[in-house]
Specification:
It contains five helices and eleven strands, in the order βαββαβαββββαβββα. The chain is α/β, with parallel strands linked by helices and about 230 residues long.
Length: about 230
C-alpha cells in the first residue's frame, strides 16, 4: 500500500499573496498542502512548514516585523526548535530573519526600485533537505519580485556564516545589492532556510522554468521521509 502524501503547512498572514501559489505548487509535487491562518497558535500534524511571499501586515514598520509576533509564528518557532523543516520564501525569508530564526536582515534593494524578473542562481550546498535534488554548483533560473531583498550582515558575521557553510544559494548577477551575492541562507542545523527568489513560480514549464520544483521537491521528500520514520516507530 502506498504511503499517504506528506502534509506541509503554508501559513497565510494578512497581506500574503503567494500562499495559494505555494499550496498549488506543493500539491503538484505530491504533497498534501495544509493552509494555516496567522491567528492559529497550534499547527496541524505536518512534516514541514512554508512561509510564503507577499506583504504580511502591509509591510508596516519593516517587512516581516509584525508577522513575527503572530500566534502562528510562535508555533513555527517551537516546530523549528524540535528540528522541523521550515522554508521561508521572499516575505517568509524576511519574517524568519525578523524572528531570529535566520541570520541577517533584508533591506531595500540597492536600486530603491521594485524588481520582478527571472534571475540566475548558483547552488552552493546540496547537503540540505532544500537542495538535495540539486547538483553541486548547479545553475537555477527562478523569478524574484521584491522591493526589500538586499540581505545584509556585517563582515564578521558573513565570514562566520561562510565558515559554517550556511550560504545555500547565490545570485549569478546580483539584482539587489545583497552582501556576498547571497540569495538564500540556512540556519546552522540546516532545518530552516530562507530565500528571496520564488520557487513556487518556477514549477510549471508554461512559466519558463521548472527549477523551483527542485527546491520544493526537496521539502516534499524530506517531509515524506520524516512521516515514514514516524510511522515505522509507531
Amino acid at each position: 500500500m502506498n504511503a499517504a502524501p506528506p502534509r506541509i503547512a503554508v501559513v497565510t498572514f494578512p497581506g500574503s499573496n503567494d500562499d495559494r501559489d505555494a499550496l498549488l505548487a506543493l500539491e503538484r509535487l505530491g504533497a498534501t498542502a495544509v493552509p494555516v491562518w496567522h491567528a492559529d497558535d497550534h499547527l496541524p500534524d505536518v512534516g514541514a512548514i512554508v512561509l510564503p511571499g507577499g506583504f504580511s501586515y502591509g509591510d508596516y514598520l519593516r517587512c516581516g516585523a509584525i508577522a513575527r509576533f503572530s500566534p502562528a509564528m510562535r508555533a513555527v518557532v517551537d516546530f523549528a526548535a524540535e528540528g522541523g523543516l521550515v522554508l521561508g520564501i521572499c516575505n517568509g525569508f524576511q519574517i524568519l530573519c525578523e524572528a531570529g530564526l535566520l541570520p541577517g536582515v533584508l533591506r531595500p534593494n540597492a536600486s530603491l526600485a521594485f524588481i520582478s524578473r527571472d534571475v540566475g542562481l548558483r547552488v552552493e550546498r546540496t547537503d540540505t533537505p532544500f537542495t538535495a535534488a540539486c547538483s553541486p554548483r548547479q545553475r537555477l533560473t527562478i523569478p524574484i519580485k521584491h522591493g526589500e531583498g538586499c540581505w545584509f550582515v556585517d563582515d564578521d558575521l558573513l565570514a562566520e556564516l561562510e565558515a559554517r557553510r550556511q550560504i545555500v544559494l547565490r545570485y549569478e548577477q546580483n539584482p539587489n545589492g545583497s552582501i556576498g551575492d547571497v540569495a538564500g541562507v540556512c540556519n546552522e542545523q540546516g532545518n530552516i532556510m530562507g530565500l528571496m527568489p520564488h520557487p513556487e513560480h518556477a514549477v510549471d514549464p508554461l512559466l519558463g522554468s521548472t527549477d523551483g520544483a527542485l527546491i520544493l521537491s526537496g521539502v516534499v521528500e524530506a517531509a515524506r521521509a520524516a512521516a515514514l520514520r514516524v510511522a515505522a516507530v509507531s
